[in-house]
Amino acid sequence: MNFDKYFTMSEADAALYAKTKLDFFGKDEELVCKEIGDGNLNYIFKIDSLSTSKSLIIKQSGPVARISDEFKLSADRNRIEYEILKYQSTLAPGLVPEVYSYDPIMNCTSMEDLSDHVIMRTEMINHKQFKKFADDITTFMVNTLLLTSDVCMEHKAKKELVKNFINPELCEISEDLVYTEPFSDINNRNDIFAPNVDWVKENIYSDEALKLETAKLKFDFMNNAQALVHGDLHTGSIFIKEDSTKVIDPEFAFYGPMGYDVGNVIANLMFALANAQAYEKAEQIKWLEDTIVEVIDLFKEKFSKAWDEKASEYTAKYKGFKEYYLDTVLRDTAAVTGLEGIRRIVGIAHVKDITSIQDEEKRTKAERLCMLASKSFIMNREELKTGKDFLEVIKKTTVKL
């Protein structure tokens, strides 16, 4: 087996690939492999040596998504992920996994094994807290977003990155699943919790004012090549432990609006908060409320400081422009918080924070909380400027239910 023609690897194949194609393990080392992926798109293999403590991850992309054969995907997303992680490691050192190699034939990337970390979403469902998260994630977002924008980059160099990271197939998934289908079910792919079917029809599908705003936001998403966004920055794409945060899975990365990443983080903290409320976990509720406020406020503080230190575009230094620009990012953050908050409830790709709530009445309430708050985030996006503003949307909605 020379691995000179693409095929979807099994565990045995991946172990052989690691031994024969990667300069990582010794030739005489006995390897074991386990397929550990549970995502919607790819195959993830963990390779361990039985004679040493060395291990690595191999991530392979197929021509279709695992979630559904309807989604035909370019394997170039693996190349994008490899190059993005290499680039992000220079922008935000220590906040992404190390990548070792990329194979364009087998459509796979080998990278650092983060088995000493845990998936953040899983741990928050277990009502764990991570005091360092807000600081880490805001450093990551400011460094990977502002520093890849025209504010700080030479414009021709930035345009080369726009070209290199064009990502039409993955963007189309976002355009469909985030911006379009949750608000009308145009392709009949939505998956609504039975007690909320009629509620969604009345409060989401029939809300013409809401749909108009989502159309505006969709066209902005498609046309605003502002910064190199991660494109899927939720708590399932974050490995974490007490003293470390690692952002993974940037295969949806492309040049788009900065608020897309920040809003995804806030929305997924909202899902965790809804879960904590359903289980009446007071300490977890307090931590999540504080974290939502901190993420917005720390992002603003670090963004402003980085702008002052690293802005290179002459006109970006005009008085008042930084404040105007940051306001547009916060506006987009609020909008994407709402889009993500609805699409993860109504659409095809749910989150376990909500689906793991066993009590039907409490899950129904948690879903409505997220959807109603999300409508406010979208419709009132121009008004939200601080972390307290973002939290108040959720708290006021909670009181109404």
From TrEMBL:
Every copy of the Aminoglycoside phosphotransferase domain together lies at 224-278
Enzyme class, broadest EC rank: transferase
Give the GO terms filed under biological process for this record: methionine biosynthetic process
GO MF, one term, reads: S-methyl-5-thioribose kinase activity
Which Pfam families does the protein's record reference? APH
Q: Which keywords does the record carry? A: ATP-binding, Kinase, Nucleotide-binding, Transferase
Q: What is its EC number?
A: 2.7.1.100
* Signal sequence range: none
Classify the source by domain of life: Bacteria
InterPro entries found in the cross-reference section: Aminoglycoside_PTrfase (IPR002575), Kinase-like_dom_sf (IPR011009), Methylthioribose_kinase (IPR009212)
Assembly with partners or alone: Homodimer.
PANTHER family associated with the record: METHYLTHIORIBOSE KINASE
Q: What NCBIfam families does this protein's entry cite?
A: MTRK
Similarity annotation: Belongs to the methylthioribose kinase family.
Name by which UniProt lists this protein: S-methyl-5-thioribose kinase
Encoded by which gene? mtrK
